[in-house]
Amino acid sequence: MRTISEAMNVAGLFSEEELSLLAAARQAAKRAHCPYSHFAVGAALETDIGIVLGCNVENASYGLSCCAERVALFTAVAQGATRFLRLALSCPATAPDAPVESRMPCGACLQVLSEFLPLETPLLIDGVGKKQLKELLPYPFR
Ligand code: THU
């Protein structure tokens, strides 16, 4: 059975190739450590060394938690990636009638991504569509 996000995606938001990166992000969300928020997030970052996955990793000291996008990016950098081509992001448990904002990357992650990803980089957001990084963060801090 398809999730609501998957059904929305099939409505023509993404190409087959993009859908497979989104599927990887959805898989990554299954590894989320989110006992406090119960909100699992998965990210799949396509790079010159391959696809690198991330999930949110929370901590009992809440502020130390790290978002899925940053886990994916930092892992990729640590593994030697130098080119960052596309990022897929999924919050698979988001309710179908939830506001679009509950599926979007947070501002902190956008700033961190802008350190490494060109502003034209496509962000594939599950159940939403494709946005360029610069559409969500037009003026990153430099
Ligand atoms: N979260 C992400 O992983 N990425 C985002 O862009 C927004 C929020 C995580 C952080 C926390 O573990 C949970 O979602 C609820 O905020």
**Main sheet specs:** 5 strands, mixed
Distance between the termini: 45 Å
CATH fold node name: Cytidine Deaminase, domain 2
Q: Oligomeric state of the chains?
A: single chain
- CATH C-level: Alpha Beta
Poorly predicted residue ranges: none
As for the number of domains, it is 1
**Total of DSSP H or I helical runs spanning 4+ residues:** 5
- Helix-strand topology string: HHEEHEHEEH
Number of strands: 5
**In angstroms, what is the radius of gyration?**
14 Å
- SS-based structural class? alpha+beta
Amount of helix: 25-40%
Strand order of the largest sheet: 2-1-3-4-5
SS strand fraction = 15-25%
Small molecules held by this entry:
tetrahydrodeoxyuridine
CATH homology-level superfamily: Cytidine Deaminase, domain 2
Provide mean pLDDT, rounded: 95
CATH-level-2 architecture: 3-Layer(aba) Sandwich
Label the overall shape.
Answer: globular
EC number: 3.5.4.5
Pfam families: dCMP_cyt_deam_1 (PF00383)
GO molecular function: cytidine deaminase activity; identical protein binding; zinc ion binding
Protein name: Cytidine deaminase
How would the blueprint of this fold be written?
Layout: H1 4-10, H2 16-29, E1 42-47, E2 50-55, H3 68-78, E3 84-90, H4 107-114, E4 122-125, E5 129-132, H5 133-136
Parallel strand pairs: 3-4
Antiparallel strand pairs: 1-2, 1-3, 4-5
Tetrahydrodeoxyuridine binds at residues 34, 37, 39, 41, 56, 58, 65, 67-69, 105-106, 109.
